What we know:
The complex is a heterodimer of chains A (802) and B (103).
Chain A: E1 10-11, H1 17-40, H2 42-68, E2 77-87, E3 90-98, H3 100-123, H4 130-149, H5 153-171, H6 178-208, H7 213-220, H8 239-245, E4 248-250, E5 256-258, H9 265-273, H10 279-285, E6 287-288, E7 291-292, H11 293-308, H12 317-320, H13 326-335, H14 340-347, H15 349-352, H16 356-377, H17 383-404, H18 407-434, H19 447-450, H20 452-466, H21 472-486, E8 491-492, E9 495-496, H22 500-527, H23 555-559, H24 570-579, H25 597-612, H26 620-623, H27 628-633, H28 648-673, H29 680-687, H30 689-696, H31 701-773, H32 780-801
Parallel strand pairs in A: 1-2
Antiparallel strand pairs in A: 2-3, 4-5, 6-7, 8-9
Helix pairs in contact in A: 1-2, 1-4, 2-3, 2-4, 3-4, 3-13, 3-18, 3-25, 4-5, 5-6, 5-13, 6-11, 11-14, 11-16, 13-18, 16-17, 16-22, 17-18, 17-21, 17-22, 18-20, 18-21, 18-25, 20-22, 20-25, 21-22, 21-28, 22-28
Chain B: H1 6-26, H2 30-56, H3 60-90
Amino acid sequence: xxxxxxxxxxxxxxxxxxxxxxxxxxxxxxxxxxxxxxxxxxxxxxxxxxxxxxxxxxxxxxxxxxxxxxxxxxxxxxxxxxxxxxxxxxxxxxxxxxxxxxxxxxxxxxxxxxxxxxxxxxxxxxxxxxxxxxxxxxxxxxxxxxxxxxxxxxxxxxxxxxxxxxxxxxxxxxxxxxxxxxxxxxxxxxxxxxxxxxxxxxxxxxxxxxxxxxxxxxxxxxxxxxxxxxxxxxxxxxxxxxxxxxxxxxxxxxxxxxxxxxxxxxxxxxxxxxxxxxxxxxxxxxxxxxxxxxxxxxxxxxxxxxxxxxxxxxxxxxxxxxxxxxxxxxxxxxxxxxxxxxxxxxxxxxxxxxxxxxxxxxxxxxxxxxxxxxxxxxxxxxxxxxxxxxxxxxxxxxxxxxxxxxxxxxxxxxxxxxxxxxxxxxxxxxxxxxxxxxxxxxxxxxxxxxxxxxxxxxxxxxxxxxxxxxxxxxxxxxxxxxxxxxxxxxxxxxxxxxxxxxxxxxxxxxxxxxxxxxxxxxxxxxxxxxxxxxxxxxxxxxxxxxxxxxxxxxxxxxxxxxxxxxxxxxxxxxxxxxxxxxxxxxxxxxxxxxxxxxxxxxxxxxxxxxxxxxxxxxxxxxxxxxxxxxxxxxxxxxxxxxxxxxxxxxxxxxxxxxxxxxxxxxxxxxxxxxxxxxxxxxxxxxxxxxxxxxxxxxxxxxxxxxxxxxxxxxxxxxxxxxxxxxxxxxxxxxxxxxxxxxxxxxxxxxxxxxxxxxxxxxxxxxxxxxxxxxxxxxxxxxxxxxxxxxxxxxxxxxxxxx
Amino acid sequence: xxxxxxxxxxxxxxxxxxxxxxxxxxxxxxxxxxxxxxxxxxxxxxxxxxxxxxxxxxxxxxxxxxxxxxxxxxxxxxxxxxxxxxxxxxxxxxxxxxxxxxx
Lengths: 802, 103
């Protein structure tokens, strides 16, 4: 085993620019976007948005160039702006870091994000809230960049929540449609469950890194003697005290590594990866309620990934997320955000690698999701739903990769998937645009004639996803499945399970066959045969498409018809306007046309990408060198996972099986759906109608959720409402009654006793005064009588006493 | 032969004082009340002079009575002035009317 040293940091000062550009773009469009749109046309809005993405991409490329110029072990760019907060051991900086893994993510996000921004120009041209769309899209890019570039958990979590928010905003972009608004909420709430797990895992990890220092001191001897006063988690008021709280250990070569709880990825990685610190042993040794603490941490962190990356059982939001505009589905729900979970597991590879149970769990759920959602994809008619289930399935493959320990393969599949799934989604977007916002594949067909570029790019992406050796998907999927087959170290729920790897392999290869089948099914249904949507159809766009005529047209919206995006030659469009005005959709029922160049150009670039990324992952079997991407990612993915050594012949055979799976899927799809001529699908559907219904209705998972989660939670809410109304309110009322009772007594005492005494005194005084008043007659003679009487009395007394 | 003794003088003084007292106590006329006061003072004067002659000797008692006479004159002047004020205020000199200080 290779001895690893601490990460060698290369300080730079421009990384912050990468996320800042989209943030600036989002801010501009959010604050003055509507004004820009009014005054300068939509062009100004998308210039700001696309311009910010281009600037961001440029900085990212520069950083990439700088990184390539460094030695492999120095490839860690760091840019710390300032300290956000420090509380005891918790220290969170506003700092950005790029290691090869996050560099790859940043390039994917900025490059594909930029392309999808460009695509949106054409796709959203008829959207009155154009500025709002681009503002959200930029905000998303900012959050996603924060997620992948943040050098600590705090920033990552900030981005994690930010992308969730943007996902919600963009799914519910057409919020006047209750279904779409609900889909947004569903995504948000499902993600909340995941985020909860993520946070719990995070805090458990933080907690696990501390504690039991004395034992460790004894075990490691004198050279490992942390500074005294370590046990105290007292608040540190100055740097000297903080240094006591965050001790450092000499790891050889004069390098010191901070140990103890941290949110910083680099510090975490250093102390866990370097043997000498003993942190890894400490983590392995800890148990919580009889379970390995690391396994619990891994599983909880993976719950977060389940939510964000749509794994069983939290995947239900992703198919519904297709309610959002198609570029959003491509960017957020296929290429970038949903891969955040995969990224997170890959980023924490050194933690997951310590716990075979956590890894087995990740891989198991990934495999289950891969096959489960692939089977749902078989019979969907909505082209975006097919792609959504395909995305869930492919994410399952990525988790198989990072679960069995083939981190680079998971990351590679993330990269290839970003390209080919973005192509597929944008191709479907182009198709939807061409077919007047029709998403049902039964009403398409024959589009290859009308939209040749879209058809070819879609086909290229299908090759990639189905796993043909001339496209990228083959290499990533094959590597994942091969590594799954050869992994022997996995545990399942704490028990060693050498059978799990091969089982995952079989599941994966079946899912891959299914993938090829449903993807080619969607291709043949959409692009071959005769066009079936002739009768003209207008899906009620919930935003008023006519209002666009009031706004100044950009060049593009002149080309793309304002009401449904169908492409028209300008003169026809103008004639339409003159004769019937915008309100009359006379052109409906016209044949679909190819989309404008902003859309097709993006499609071509992405399709080329989904073929060419194959070069990054040519297997060692062929070239006798490690794949380029594996070599590049190696400094970031340091976890050493043991794979069984198998003969090369077997690897060749497995590659053959991988290709065969794709071919079998394609063959059946072609047989059943090419040109829509075969009657077999309908026949099969009739024969196995019940099974078909179950699968078509997604195994009734949403309904099961309704029964198992929604209804109990509603009942629970009702029960709580009842408790609130009858128990809590009763208690409150009772307390109120008691208080009132005592207050009454108190009031009575006050009123009758205290006031009574006071009044009595006053009344007595009044009565006395009234009585004595009679004496004061004002007549001198009366007083004289008094004086005489007094004198007489004195005289008489004088006599009496003597 | 009846000898005039101290007892007689004291009896006259006591009579004068009693008459004065009754006058002061019963008259409604403010001037009458002032006259009663004169009687009271002179009753006292008789006592002064008698005790001086029969008991003490010398002139102390006489001088004291002269003082009282002067005082009585002053008192009469002030008293009459008050009576005039009363008359101007109340248009009567009935002492029962002058009960403004009551209550």
